[in-house]
Amino acid sequence: MNWFTRSRQRCLGLLAVLALVLALTLSACGSPANAANSSAPASKPSSGTQQYRSSNSASNTQSSNKATNADQQIQSLLRQLDGAHNDVNNADNGASQDGGQP
Q1: Residues near 101 by Cβ (< 8 Å), separated by ≥ 6?
Q2: Per 3-state DSSP, what percentage of the chain is helix, strand, and coil (rounded to 5)?
Q3: CA–CA separation, 31 and 24 (whole Å)
């Protein structure tokens, strides 16, 4: 029974070390929280009070419009890709029904 207890402890220790290595590996491979500005801190400390900054609403609207336009363009491209995929599937199904004849 003593050898069984020691082997179980060794397995649990090995499992704990593997879990630690996996956690460290995953955290090292993750992308930084603020990828656009790597010198900026990932999060700002909270002082308990909210501070409001006035912003230029025209630039916010332009940024929003650009994001909306980009999203619409991506959605349009995805629809085109879906259509092309369906065309390929339909052509493939038609060829298999014809016995492989074009």
Answers
A1: 95
A2: 70, 0, 30
A3: 13
Helix (H, G, I), strand (E, B) or coil at 40: coil
Please give the average per-residue pLDDT across 46-69, as a whole number: 67
CB–CB of 42/50 below 8 Å? no
Q: Which residue has the tokens 């179980």?
A: 8
- Each residue of 62-87: pLDDT tens digit? 778 888 888 888 888 888 988 888 88
pTM higher than the cut 0.85: no
| Tens-digit pLDDT profile for residues 3-34 | 788 888 889 999 999 998 888 888 877 766 55
Q: CA nearest 59: which of 70, 67, 50?
A: 67
How far apart, in whole angstroms, are the C-alpha atoms of residue 4 and residue 53?
Answer: 65
CA dist., res. 64 & res. 35, Å (int): 21
Amino acid identity, position 36? A
Tell how far CA 76 is from the center of its chain. 21
